[in-house]
Amino acid sequence: MLFGSRKPGRIDPIFSGLKAVIDHHRERDTLPPLTEADRLDGMTCLVTGPSSGLGRAIAPELARRGGRVILACREGHEGLAEAIRRESGNPEVSQRPLDLADLGSVTTLCDGLARDGVKLDLLVSNAGVAPLGNRLTGDGLAELFQVNFLASFLLANRLLDDDVLPRGRPTRRAPRIVITSSETHRTCPPIDFERFGQFPDFGLLDGTTWYGHSKLYVQTFACELARRLVKADGSPDVSVFSYCPGAVRTRISREGGLAGKVMTAYFIDPKVAMWPAVHLAASRTLEGRTGVYLYLRHVAAADARSADPRNGELLWQLGLEMLAARGA
Hints:
- With 328 residues, the protein is α/β, with parallel strands linked by helices.
- Helices cover 40% and strands 11% of the residues.
- The relative contact order is 0.17.
């Protein structure tokens, strides 16, 4: 049983963290290097979770490459857009409120973008959480499930349905969606579709296991979205990419207290860990491709469970039903 005492697929947080650090130091870059020609001039980019960590590193780099960057983050980060304008030298950086723990906030953002006639070329779906326990949001859902998967699922679907993220642009590069995933999606418990979105009570020692479980939802979504956004000839209407940045030194593990600080002391700096995301966002070598998953700086195959079309179809159907039940 998924929530039984044997805890199938339990991820040891110390081993997982050490492996990620070792993998980073052993990594051999197999990606074509980004050049000055891999730019985003004239393209509009939306980044979720840009106030700290990985998103805070990604957003200025997209701006340096010429992108018009929209920062989507929670209230309380006034001045963020101005700071990134100064750092990047790009005046076209703006900010809009978004709280993924509130489904209404997602629809408000999408409504505002559509009303203002925004047309995106790039969505970087980066925001995520790693809480110490199974908290519920105001929508009555597990925070790990809603923030890491369901709200981002709603965001992508609304942007596509409202033509804010237009499909199939024949005169320019296909739009891209870049999703932050995790290698922990491989070794976590499977999705129990009969208990869709339900998480058990957990503490510090099981936090990595259930964080990985939330990322299995994310990676399954990424694979299914890529399948759904392909034309009859196999070329993408919208390119969908996902990646694991490795063990990154961010505030996402701040609830771990002293143990969390010790564990993350040797993790990767976000300014180093951001490069797979920037590659997926900007590299010309990926034009005409979709469904690519990167682990650090090499192409890898996603776990078979996430790549299974039957799981993707179920996740999509149940995700829509759950949103509809909440009026989203």
